[in-house]
Amino acid sequence: MEPLRRKALVDAALRAIGENGSLAVPMAEIARHAGVSPALAHHYFGSKEQLLIETIRSLLRQLRADAVAALTAAQTPRARVSAIIRVNFQAHQFAPETVAAWLAFYSEAQRSDAVRRLLFTYARRLRSNLVASLKHLAGTDDAARIAEGVAALIDGLYLRQGLKSAPISIAASQALVEDYVSAELAQRQARHTSQETQA
Amino acid sequence: MEPLRRKALVDAALRAIGENGSLAVPMAEIARHAGVSPALAHHYFGSKEQLLIETIRSLLRQLRADAVAALTAAQTPRARVSAIIRVNFQAHQFAPETVAAWLAFYSEAQRSDAVRRLLFTYARRLRSNLVASLKHLAGTDDAARIAEGVAALIDGLYLRQGLKSAPISIAASQALVEDYVSAELAQRQARHTSQETQA
DNA sequence: TTTTGTTGATTGATTGATCAATTAAAAATA
DNA sequence: TATTTTTAATTGATCAATCAATCAACAAAA
Predict the structure, then answer these.
(1) More confident residue, A166 or A107
(2) Nucleotides of chain D within 7 Å of a protein C-beta?
(3) Nearest to A53 by CA among A128, A5, A112
(4) Cα torsion through A121, B90, B3, B1, rounded to 10
(5) What angle do CA B125, B127, B128 make, to 5 degrees?
(6) Domains observed in chain A
(7) Is residue B5's beta carbon less than 7 angstroms from any atom in nucleic acid strand C?
(8) pLDDT for B32-51, tens place per residue?
(9) Residue A176 pLDDT more than 60?
């Protein structure tokens, strides 16, 4: 029973948080979503905070699995970059409830060290993956800079999607990031070429 | 007394929210920051929600004033774009307490229509200002796309700053956005030139 | 019988909001 | 000016609601 209940409660927490747009959703509501009593949620997770942390872990685990799969399929460095971008814009990542949950977690990171560590670890891995691929396409400095830009763009587009007043679609958001990478690489290419011309 | 108290309470709310990283800060703590009793805060604002809304209004008002000043000083379209970017990266906008408050407000926008409307209005004005200037430098479609990119970049860099695990400085963040604009405009220029060559 | 799963009832703490009471300031009146 | 009256400012005390957490009790399975 235990693994079943744990999964059901984690899924229920994500759903409840998404619906509510806040981590301040009562344990009772989460438990109701999972079809159990509030007492049982405490029995298995000990505290609300622990359940929330497990919920974030579950989100990140899924994201990582998707990323690994996408990266394995990609053959060239440029394709790897696109794969990373694509994973972050996957449909279920952009589902309103998921976006709402992410936003709530980011906000919570300001108070909880544990949550901050989790999000930080994810951010580092994302950057690391991006830099590794970009290094084949640009110098170390440019790779780091572009990686930071891509990560910020993804976060920003995510945030704006969360406001629902989104002026652009998911596909357009993804295209915007792709375009950023292309423009930056092209600009670097041009700089490089002009330097050779000058020399 | 009334205007004095209102201002003191709004400032106190911003500070308390920033310190706490959440809108869930008790009215009593906000009142304490302002040196008055909790009852007085209710007396002047009626409810906690109203005080929070006035607090956001105050933030947006300041930002708008800064933007107007910066835009007035800028002479060329490109300088206007830089001015808008610069204002958003002003030191006091990046103060930890301000970033924390912004994040909390974004999260709150998912629940409160009033808050969402306020943030949406600000986002629309930012976009409008950007597009107006960019139209002098690129076509309508490109202008809209680049404006969205700039806005998303600003939001994303802001978000990442909020996690404190910021790998890059404020100046570097600002430079990154500037570079995005330059790269996009250069890419457009290149596309345009090659088309002429082909023709 | 022992272990595991499960819940209803309850508790203790937090907190937004209210209100009667108090003080201080201002206005009106003598 | 002095006195009374009215208005504004302010607070301590308290209420009512919410909620995480606990626990004793019960059911089911091993």
Answers:
(1) A107
(2) 8-13, 18-24
(3) A112
(4) 80
(5) 60
(6) 56-198 (1.10.357.10)
(7) no
(8) 999 999 999 999 999 999 99
(9) yes
Q: Closest chain B residue to A115 measured between Cα atoms?
A: B163
Do residues B163 and A102 touch, judged by C-beta distance below 8 A?
A: no
Spatial distance between the Cα atoms of B27 and B38, rounded to a whole number of angstroms: 6
Per the structure block, which two tokens stand in for A144? 């780091």
Residues A12-70: tens digit of each pLDDT: 999 999 999 999 999 999 999 999 999 999 999 999 999 999 999 999 999 999 999 99
Q: What is the pLDDT of residue A197?
A: 52
Q: Chain A 125-164, CB below 8 Å of chain B: which residues? A: 127, 145, 148-149, 151-160, 162-164
At A160, list the tokens: 């704006």
Least confident of A128-132, B75-79, B97-101: B97-101
Q: Which residues of B touch A127 (CB under 8 A)?
A: 167
Q: Which long-range contacts (CB under 8 A, 24 or more apart) does A64-71 make?
A: A64/A122, A64/A125, A66/A90, A67/A129, A71/A129
For residues A80 and A92, give the distance between their C-alpha atoms in angstroms, rounded to a whole number: 20
What whole-number distance in Å separates Cα of residue A118 and Cα of residue A130? 19
